[in-house]
């Protein structure tokens, strides 16, 4: 407690202070007048200050004291509660005392630097903040409580303010030679703790690449990290060359976020970077090729990437130019529209070229699960394969879905297969029911087959958007997405591809609402789909094939596919199961339900430490109405 604790109560406060002050026995002790008497006793002895001036107020002599030098940093490393760095994070004890004037600026997650005597720096972040008692007195008392209730301010210096630090790395060197290593040294007691404010030191400490695909700006608690550089923000990028391993695009990306979290906005901004004219990748024959992007679009939003964003003003564009961020509508954008009976594609939200296509039934030779309906068991699925093989043997690649239905109506076929023991008649009937359960109007429509549009579907530097919003049933949407995606994956993984264009071009497959197509399920056909995309994910690095999955229900994506994803971009999610499924560090997972639109957590172990980012406030292409 301080001197003020005993002098704040006035005469009118009813605590006995007034009566005591009026006692004649106390007159003159405080240098005040009582009952009209002049309390000047002892003035000759005690009223002269150090400058020879008369201190007739009866108080102590006052001196003007100016501290020498200036305070540097936020505080100092403290040894009072232990100072220990260990291999086991739970055994590490590292705390800093934060001075009174700096306390309002300190936040959980803030990045700090602690220098060693030889010039190396300990890069760390704040993981805990606490007030501790400065003096031995107990502040949980009636007197202390009432004193606080009668004052307007808070005396910071009455308490110690301690920041608990998590060591992240040791940074050493300067300029382009700056490097990091694991924490292997303990800082000195009393070492100055400073806020990390150098762009290069922050990126080195967090292992953020200097170049690559831009995702957003580093932030802490929803506020961008500021530095002394120009621009003052710290850009976060994903590795995109072979210098330090494979480009992370081919090790797959997941964007997870609830409705209104900004995941489509963020996804457009990232995809636009992959389509930049200056971004190329080596091919198997030694050439350099731009990325092709095929984006499946359930809400008819991604074809808007053809158009400029009218809200992107000149000042914002200059900022993007300074940071090397690609922006503007992408001219080489084509909307590949699936033709379906009784369905019309409006396409009113963009000016991209439109090309109609149909799904030829011939794709069922390699993808029998397209016509499996649902619920086929392990006995019925082989029967479907037998029927499809016989059908295409008799009708060739030109065989249609309608012809296949008529083929199954032949009683002689059913009897032959039953008598030969190849397909029991009950199994035959079950397969027939499932095949007829597939919605009509999606196969063999009046448009060019997708198998003949490989050079339109996959174009180096081109964006192909496959909208499904206009299709009337979810099953039709599923057939279209899985047929086109399966065609791309098969040609990428095959040793004898049907399309050299698909096989040779670096390819990114974007799939919005991925949980609807790659869900873990017990049906044979679902298992076959997941198996195909799991294999695609495993072989992606070698074949220059990347998956870019977007979902609001990450917990529904098949685990075998999920495990192959290296980069997770997590925006606001309110569901605990969804947050748990993305498997990000607990300190960041706790922030996810509270993040505003555009805030995100990026967990990419092969790229950087887990970090919090803020995406661009404006979409680099057209977005929305």
Low-pLDDT stretches are: 1-56
The class by helix and strand makeup works out as alpha/beta
Q: Whole-number average pLDDT?
A: 87
- Output the number of helix runs: 17
**What's the total count of β strands?**
23
Biased composition (Acidic residues): 1-16
Protein name: Tubulin
InterPro entries: HerA_central (IPR002789), P-loop_NTPase (IPR027417), T4SS_component (IPR051162)
Domain Helicase HerA central: 244-477
What can you see in these coordinates?
- With 625 residues, the chain is an alpha/beta fold.
- The model is unreliable at 1-56 (pLDDT under 50).
- It is built from 17 helices and 23 strands.
- The strands form three sheets. Strands 8, 9, 10, 11, 14, 15, 16, 17, 18, 19, 20, 21, 22 and 23 form a 14-stranded mixed β-sheet that branches.
Key words describing this protein structure:
single chain; 625 residues; alpha/beta; Rossmann fold; 14-stranded mixed β-sheet; 17 helices; 23 strands; 20% strand; elongated
Summary?
With 625 residues, this protein is α/β, with parallel strands linked by helices.
Tell me the layout of helices and strands.
Layout: H1 17-22, H2 43-46, E1 75-78, E2 95-98, E3 111-115, E4 121-133, H3 142-149, E5 159-172, E6 179-181, E7 192-195, H4 199-206, E8 213-220, E9 223-224, E10 235-238, E11 253-256, H5 263-274, E12 280-282, E13 288-290, E14 292-297, H6 314-322, E15 333-338, E16 353-358, H7 380-395, H8 401-408, H9 411-419, H10 425-436, E17 448-449, H11 454-457, E18 463-467, H12 474-493, H13 500-504, E19 507-512, H14 524-543, E20 545-551, H15 559-562, E21 567-570, H16 576-582, H17 586-589, E22 599-603, E23 611-614
Parallel strand pairs: 11-20, 11-21, 14-18, 14-19, 15-16, 15-18, 16-17, 19-20
Antiparallel strand pairs: 1-2, 1-7, 2-5, 3-4, 3-7, 4-5, 5-6, 8-9, 8-10, 8-23, 12-13, 21-22, 22-23
């Amino acid at each position: 407690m301080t001197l003020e604790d005993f002098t704040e109560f006035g005469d009118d406060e009813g605590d006995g202070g007034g009566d005591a002050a009026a006692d004649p026995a106390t007159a003159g002790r405080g240098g005040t007048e009582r009952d009209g008497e002049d309390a000047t006793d002892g003035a000759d002895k005690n009223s002269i200050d150090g400058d020879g001036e008369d201190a007739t107020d009866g108080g102590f002599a006052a001196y003007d004291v100016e501290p020498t030098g200036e305070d540097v940093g936020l505080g100092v490393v403290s040894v009072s509660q232990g100072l220990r760095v260990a291999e086991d994070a739970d055994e590490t004890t590292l705390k800093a005392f934060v001075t009174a004037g700096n306390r309002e600026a300190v936040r959980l997650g803030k990045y700090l630097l602690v220098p060693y005597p030889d010039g190396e720096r300990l890069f760390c972040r704040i993981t805990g903040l606490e007030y501790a008692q400065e003096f031995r007195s107990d502040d949980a008392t009636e007197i202390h409580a009432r004193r606080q209730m009668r004052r307007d301010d808070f005396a910071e210096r009455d308490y110690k303010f301690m920041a608990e630090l998590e060591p992240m790395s040791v940074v050493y060197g300067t300029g382009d030679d700056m490097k990091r290593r694991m924490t292997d040294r303990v800082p000195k007691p009393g070492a100055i703790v400073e806020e990390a404010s150098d762009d290069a030191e922050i990126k080195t400490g967090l292992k953020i690449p200097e170049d690559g695909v831009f995702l957003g700006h580093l932030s802490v608690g929803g506020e961008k990290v500021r530095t002394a550089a120009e621009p003052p923000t710290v850009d976060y990028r994903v590795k995109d060359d072979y210098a330090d391993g494979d480009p992370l695009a081919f090790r797959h990306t997941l964007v997870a976020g609830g409705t209104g979290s900004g995941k489509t906005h963020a996804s457009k901004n990232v995809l636009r970077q992959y389509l930049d004219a200056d971004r190329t990748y080596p091919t198997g024959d030694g050439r350099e090729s731009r990325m092709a992007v095929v984006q499946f679009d359930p809400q008819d939003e991604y074809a808007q990437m053809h158009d400029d964003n009218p809200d992107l003003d000149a000042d914002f564009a200059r900022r993007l130019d300074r940071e090397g961020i690609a922006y503007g509508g992408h001219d080489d954008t084509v909307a590949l529209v699936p033709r379906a009976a009784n369905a019309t594609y409006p396409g009113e939200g963009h000016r991209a070229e439109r090309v109609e296509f149909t799904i030829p039934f011939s794709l069922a030779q390699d993808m029998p699960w397209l016509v499996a309906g649902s619920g086929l068991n392990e006995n019925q699925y082989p029967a479907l394969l037998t029927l499809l093989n016989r059908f295409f043997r008799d009708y060739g690649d030109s065989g249609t879905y309608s012809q296949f239905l008529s083929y199954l109506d032949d009683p002689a076929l059913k009897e032959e297969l039953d008598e030969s023991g190849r397909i029991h008649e009950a199994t035959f009937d079950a397969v027939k029911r499932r095949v007829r359960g597939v919605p009509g109007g999606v196969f063999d429509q009046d448009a060019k087959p997708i198998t003949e549009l490989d050079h339109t579907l996959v174009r180096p530097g081109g964006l192909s958007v496959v909208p499904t919003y206009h299709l009337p049933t979810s099953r039709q949407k599923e057939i279209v997405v899985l047929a086109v995606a399966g065609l791309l994956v098969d040609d990428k993984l095959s040793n004898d591809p049907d399309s050299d264009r698909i096989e040779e071009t670096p390819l990114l497959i974007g799939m919005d609402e991925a949980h609807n197509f790659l869900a873990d399920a017990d049906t044979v056909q679902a298992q076959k789909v997941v198996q195909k995309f799991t294999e695609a994910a495993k072989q992606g690095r070698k074949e220059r094939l990347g998956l870019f999955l977007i979902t609001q229900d990450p917990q529904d994506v098949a685990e075998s596919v999920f495990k192959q994803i290296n980069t997770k971009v997590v925006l606001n999610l309110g569901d605990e199961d969804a947050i748990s499924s993305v498997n990000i560090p607990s300190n960041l997972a706790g922030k996810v339900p509270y993040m505003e639109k555009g805030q995100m957590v990026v967990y990419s172990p092969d790229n950087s430490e887990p970090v919090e980012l803020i995406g661009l406030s404006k979409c680099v292409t057209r977005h929305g109405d």
